[in-house]
Amino acid sequence: MTTSDQNSVGIVSAGMYLPKQTLTAEEIARQSSLEMWVIREKLGFIEKRMTGSDDHPNQMVVWAAYHDMLRQLGISEAKGVYNNTYGHIGEQDSIINIIEGDKQGCLKYGDLMIMVAAGVGYVWGACCIKWGKYEDKSRNERRQ
Q: Sorting pLDDT into bands at 50, 70 and 90, what band is 9?
């Protein structure tokens, strides 16, 4: 086994987001002026999920990953911070979430903070940070 094999990381889970709003086949038929049998038999619709006005495809993916991470770690949504105020800004998302989490009282001294970020395409990142004062223990050990 090579060193790169020992350090490789794979996708261990994926989330899914389903918009809450739906249109039934009857509503689609009424709004489109198509007959019901066309909607059901030709198009195959029983109902169709409709994105909300605040839903954006990129945000939906991140939202799904966020909820899946909370579920797998057993963390309640009340303890999580999701950046839905500013939208995706890029590499600053994590910093904004730290600031917002601190403002909301989600971060207490000694807490383990888990940050997950998504970039362009298949670029993902995650890290764990212990919240509190930084102490460089290796520096102190070198002095002794």
A: very low
66 and 117 part of one domain: yes
- Alpha carbon distance 90, 53 (integer Å): 22
Per DSSP (E only), the strands in 103-143 are 112-118, 124-130
Q: What is the DSSP letter of 111?
A: P
Q: What is the DSSP letter of 141?
A: H
Same domain? For 108 and 122 the reply is yes
Return the pLDDT at 142: 54
What is residue 48's DSSP assignment? E
Q: Are both 134 and 66 inside the same structural domain?
A: yes
Verify that 62 and 46 share a domain, yes or no: no
